[in-house]
Amino acid sequence: MSRYGDLHEGDEIPSLELKPGLGMAIRYCAIGWVFPPIFFDVEAAHAQGMPGMMVPGPLKLGFLYRAVEEWLGDGGFVRHVRAAHRRPDLQGRTITVTGRVARLYEEEGSHRADIELAVVNDEGQQSVRGFASVQFFD
Amino acid sequence: MPEESLITPEVRALVGRESPAVPVRVTRRAVERTLELYQGAHPGTLEPGKPVTSFVLVALDNEAEAIDVPQLLPDSLLISNEMEFDRQIVLGDDLMATWRVADISERFGGRFGYSVYVRTETVFRDPVGNPVARSARTMMHYDARNAAGGEEP
């Protein structure tokens, strides 16, 4: 669990390594009942100029959320999470979520932190630039 | 590749348009499916009225009736998305969800050629109308025949 008083700007949050595949993409499609073919049809992905089936962007937002949630534990809650998608991530490839505490501050009587996040692919390229803001209970 | 804007006055008039509010409930099933989706974990047992993963909005987003924006170009990509919470989401939350078109803009040139950007939002309010959460996404619409490759927009 992260406590506001123990944190310093620049602290890194534990990284999260994942290998999202077709099953995870289909779960994403099913949960919102949206089925863009680029997530499960390789020919459709090629037709859109992609080298293969993509990891859904909203799912990558979930990975950012999860990395922050696991770091935060019972110490607070996520107020804001954002993903700017810079390049596609292909299914079956390893991605890593990284993050660092960018700012510690008080707002509306509560302790808060801004977290800079990224998704990095297995070639070391940043595919998502992310951001989260959290509110602590202490 | 279009040399003139595809954003006609009719398309521009969609900005700000909001769908009727629809009721959504944060159910145990929605929470469990969300956790399974992003491989998250919930400490302890799920209890009504207790906080759950706020990412559960991913399961509720599409309950709101989307405003139809004309497909101006054949292909589309999500370029950004976000969720913002005014408070923790709890199991059993009864919310009202509204979909709105927040912005439509365009870009001439670039790696994807001419492209149109559509930002939409789903706003979740409690039964008395207080905002609880908001999810937003920006889609880039483009023609893959004019794209240089799957690099960043």
**Quick one: overall form of chain A?**
elongated
- CATH architecture designation of chain A: Roll
Strand order of the largest sheet of chain A: 1-3-4-5-2
Give the second-level CATH assignment, the architecture of chain B. Answer: Roll
The chain-level mean pLDDT of chain B equals: 91
Question: What is the element layout, followed by pairings?
Answer:
The complex is a heterodimer of chains A (about 140) and B (about 150).
Chain A lengths: L11 E7 L3 H11 L9 H6 L9 H16 L3 E10 L9 E13 L2 E12 L4 E11 L2
Antiparallel strand pairs in A: 1-3, 2-5, 3-4, 4-5
Chain B lengths: L8 H4 L9 E4 L2 H11 L18 H4 L14 E11 L8 E14 L7 E11 L5 E12 L11
Antiparallel strand pairs in B: 1-3, 2-5, 3-4, 4-5
Structure description:
- The complex is a heterodimer of chains A (138) and B (153).
- With 138 residues, chain A is of the alpha+beta class.
- Chain A has helices at residues 22-32, 42-47, 57-72, and strands at residues 12-18, 76-85, 95-107, 110-121, 126-136.
- Chain A has a single domain (4-19, 55-136), classed as Hotdog Thioesterase (Thiol Ester Dehydrase, Chain A, Roll).
- A five-stranded antiparallel β-sheet of chain A has the order 1-3-4-5-2, with helices on one face.
- The mean pLDDT of chain A is 96.
- Chain B has 153 residues and is mostly beta strands.
- Helix content of chain B is 12%, strand content 34%.
- A five-stranded antiparallel β-sheet of chain B has the order 1-3-4-5-2, with no helix packed on it.
- In chain B, a hairpin with a 7-residue loop joins strand 3 and strand 4 (115-125).
- Strand 2 of chain A pairs antiparallel with strand 2 (75-85) of chain B.
